[in-house]
Design a protein that fits this description.
Blueprint (H helix, E strand, L loop, with lengths): L1 H21 L1 H12 L3 H33 L3 H21 L3 H9 L7 H17 L2 H12 L5 H27 L1 H40 L4
Length: 222
Amino acid sequence: MDILDEFFKAPVIVVLTLLPIINPLGNAPIFVSLARGHVPTMRRMAVRVAVNSWIILMASVMVGTYVLDLFGISLPIVRMGGGMLVAMAGWRMLYSDEDNAVRDAVVDQATEFSELEVAKRSFFPMSFPLTAGPGAIAASITLGTGAPLVSADYLVATATAAIGTAVTIGIVYLCYRYATTILTKLGAVGTIVVMRIVAFILVCIGLQMMWSAWAELNGLPQ
């Protein structure tokens, strides 16, 4: 009965843990901008981002702890490095000239990328660090550290993590797949405003991750 309860409760915990960190609605304007608003390209990119992100998060759950132990890296250091990446990505978005790109993403539906370009944009920056980013990876590793080592319990823990991660990524896929519907409601100016706000929030999230990691390493209150 305990195993059965765990099987139903654990996926919910995974979703509630990862979804706020990933924040797919906040990433939707960036996704549309990268795809230039081209609907077939967005479909292809959404699938690739979903697959990439699921693999990254599941790898973090299953072997993340062992990889960190192998290289002698602690979770605070992961959060510190990840925070730097997130802050840098947000800074580039905040001060780069994205107005024309965003306008094209909402208006221009004619440009289709090659398969190689779709693969590149799907992985960086969309899959990493914006979707399966440092925060989500650190959370996945933390979820994986609680997995029991007994074979039967380990299989159940892995299955529940896979289900919870799949549900989370499914929600992310829907948000990205139908991002143009969301942004059409906002309009071109609204989209630009949202992107700037998201960029600023990314900078703040990155700095917060760095500060939390620094405070944990030095025993300071967070």
